[in-house]
Description:
Blueprint: E1 10-13, E2 22-29, E3 34-37, E4 42-47, E5 51-56, E6 58-60, E7 64-68
Antiparallel strand pairs: 1-2, 1-7, 2-3, 3-6, 4-5
Amino acid sequence: MKLKIKKGATVQVITGSDKGKKGTVITVDATAMKIQVQGVKVQTHYDKKDGLLKKEGFIDYSNVKLVEGASKEKKTSKKATKSKTA
């Protein structure tokens, strides 16, 4: 199934403990229908090397609504311009 929300889009959480928060999409897992949103569902993770880390957890795709789509950057091809020399 094709998802409407892409990486880089701005979304708002509509249900759950983080209801009302807005953030940008960090990661999209299309097979599990889960996404990671910056600043939403922040979890504490302990790493032996780095100690305590805070990272975002995955939330369900259906618990967010799209506020602003991901910005599309135009790709310009760098073709060598041919100058006519007679």
